[in-house]
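Summary of Year 1 activities. Much of the first year was spent building the evaluation harness for sequence design. The harness presents a backbone, in tokenized form, and records the residue chosen at every position. We chose the following record to illustrate the format because it has been used consistently in internal testing since the harness was completed.
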């Protein structure tokens, strides 16, 4: 099933689920090709639910039409794929790495409105700010909250903030509150200042409390713990007060580090 959503001429927005027929695939190509011919940039929004595949009849012809579009990559703008299915989001990230120059973003269903607003140009940033700084009543204790996907601008701001604190001999103890973690923006993987800051932070800290981390993250932290001199403890979300007590500090204020 393929359902097209109301959109501007330069936006193709569609909901996909179940089995996609040959006729629906052809209509999708028709709409995209028409938009490319009529607009300087064409933006795409795909909301994918319980996807079960597509008709293989005429697959070769559809592949040929797809390759023709590869030659017009400079005519594509913002692309958002919204799905709660992990393999679809991973496949999208792989595809985005193979198609340089296109602003490709993935979202879960609860981020659907943000994704559509970004594709339509109503939101400048693809994701809402995800990183908060938590100030405490102790100059040697600092906290942060992570909730979402970390943008390249946030990584720069985080690196700058923590490097400034490190230059002044702070902090000695750190709390990380993990509400959700959806990865780094692709540019963040190459951010040398951010990774250098993390290395310096590990050398400085003596205690690090991680609150609310998913199980896979807790397992990774516990596996890496013997490699570092810092003492790391994981706490469940409802145990945050215990984490602050272990750090011997209390939270005072919170603020987004980048907008």
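For this record, the design step produced the sequence shown next.
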């Amino acid at each position: 099933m393929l359902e097209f959503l109301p959109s501007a001429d330069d936006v193709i927005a569609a909901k996909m689920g179940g089995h996609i027929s040959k006729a629906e695939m052809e209509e999708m190509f028709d709409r995209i090709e028409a938009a490319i011919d009529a607009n300087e940039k064409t933006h795409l929004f795909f909301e994918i639910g319980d996807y079960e595949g597509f008709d293989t009849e005429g697959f070769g012809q559809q592949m040929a039409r797809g390759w023709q579009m590869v030659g017009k990559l400079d005519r594509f703008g913002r692309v958002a794929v919204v799905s709660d299915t992990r393999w679809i989001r991973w496949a999208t990230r792989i595809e985005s790495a193979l198609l340089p120059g296109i602003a490709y973003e993935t979202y879960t269903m609860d981020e659907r409105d943000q994704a559509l607003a970004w594709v339509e140009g109503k939101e400048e940033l693809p994701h809402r700010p995800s990183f908060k700084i938590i100030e405490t009543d102790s100059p040697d204790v600092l906290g942060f909250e992570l909730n979402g996907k970390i943008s390249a601008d946030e990584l720069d701001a985080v690196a700058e903030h923590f490097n400034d604190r490190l230059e002044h001999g702070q902090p000695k103890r750190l709390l990380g509150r993990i509400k959700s973690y959806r990865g780094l923006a692709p540019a963040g993987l190459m951010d040398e200042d951010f990774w250098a800051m993390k290395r310096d932070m590990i050398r400085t800290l003596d205690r690090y409390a991680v609150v609310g981390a998913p199980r896979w993250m807790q397992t990774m932290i516990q596996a890496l713990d013997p490699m570092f001199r810092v003492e790391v403890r994981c706490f469940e979300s409802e145990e945050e007060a215990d984490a602050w007590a272990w750090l011997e500090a209390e939270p005072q204020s919170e603020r987004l580090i980048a907008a």
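The first strand starts at residue 2 and ends at 4. Quantitative recovery figures across the full test set are reported in Table 2.
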